[in-house]
Fold this sequence. Notes:
Layout: H1 2-16, H2 30-48
Helix pairs in contact: 1-2
Amino acid sequence: MLGTILVVFLILALLGALPRWSHSRSWGYTPTGGVGLVLLIVIILVLLGRI
């Protein structure tokens, strides 16, 4: 249950980190890449049963 909530939260954070506004376009995809990496790690841990 906790793993599912964490995955959903990280997916929402990944969508929120996309550079959509003019002030954040210069950041590139760095925030999205960081959140995506954390999401990937959490998904692997959920599949392995560690969370």
